[in-house]
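2024-03-11 09:14:02 INFO worker-7 job=invfold-0412 stage=load source=structure_tokens
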């Protein structure tokens, strides 16, 4: 085994010297037995910018035969600096990242969307025959599916316009009873509306009916609880004491 190890390491070193530029191969790092008749010899890489990387030379070792080079690759070691795991462009985009001219087309199998002729738009009245509407091209081609509507509802309910924010918890009333609430149409109308109060923080935003703020239409100024008349002073430093004459 020692003889074979020496032969494979020497063969690997010769192959590296022939394949890579001078000065790119450093110290011998050891051998790995990958499978019967298959080994990998490792050598340090000294190329600038590749600290912690190593050369891996794969060899086939058969009885009574010279080792055969299979492959030479440069691999990162435990201390090597490598690029982070690739994240698809779509997964890297966060809400608010899109700018003017940017586009983000939906996936072909996006579960949030469904053909309008199949689910309608919240089952609104007026579409008697969806198949006929599809044939003549009425309405939108795609609408939110049931999953899409519930996904939006959960996101809105858990957001800043939901019932769990400090603003909502201390509000004098809920949006569902506010006169500034603009009602929605469709399946989400029983849970959400749009704030129409220009002085409210949520003006123009979708709010949960259980949300609330201090600009509720039913809010009234607090009356002063102070006493209407002052009590008699303990020490009168203003009045004039009457003194009897002797």
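2024-03-11 09:14:09 INFO worker-7 stage=emit residues=246
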């Amino acid at each position: 085994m020692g003889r074979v190890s020496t032969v494979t390491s020497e063969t690997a070193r010769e192959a590296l010297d022939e394949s890579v530029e001078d000065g790119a191969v450093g110290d011998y790092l050891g051998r790995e037995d990958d499978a019967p008749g298959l080994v990998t010899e490792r050598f340090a890489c000294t190329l600038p910018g590749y600290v912690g990387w190593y050369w891996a030379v794969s060899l086939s070792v058969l009885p009574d035969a010279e080792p055969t080079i299979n492959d030479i690759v440069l691999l990162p070691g435990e201390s090597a600096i490598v690029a982070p795991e690739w994240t698809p462009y779509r997964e890297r985009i966060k809400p608010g990242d899109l700018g003017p001219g940017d586009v983000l087309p939906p996936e072909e199998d996006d579960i949030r969307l469904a053909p309008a002729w199949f689910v309608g738009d919240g089952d609104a009245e007026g579409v008697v025959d969806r198949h006929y509407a599809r044939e003549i091209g009425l309405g939108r081609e795609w609408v939110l599916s049931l999953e899409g509507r519930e996904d939006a509802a959960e996101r809105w309910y858990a957001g800043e316009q939901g019932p769990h924010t400090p603003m909502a918890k201390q509000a004098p009333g809920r949006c569902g009873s506010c006169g500034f609430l603009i009602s929605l149409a469709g399946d989400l109308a029983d849970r959400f509306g749009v704030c129409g109060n220009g002085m409210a923080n949520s003006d123009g935003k979708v709010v949960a009916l259980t949300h609330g703020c201090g600009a509720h239409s039913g809010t009234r100024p607090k009356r002063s609880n102070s006493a209407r008349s002052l009590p008699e002073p303990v020490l009168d430093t203003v009045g004039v004491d009457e003194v009897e004459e002797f």
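2024-03-11 09:14:09 INFO worker-7 stage=report msg="The helical segments are 2-19, 89-92, 116-119, 130-136, 146-158, 166-169."
2024-03-11 09:14:10 INFO worker-7 job finished
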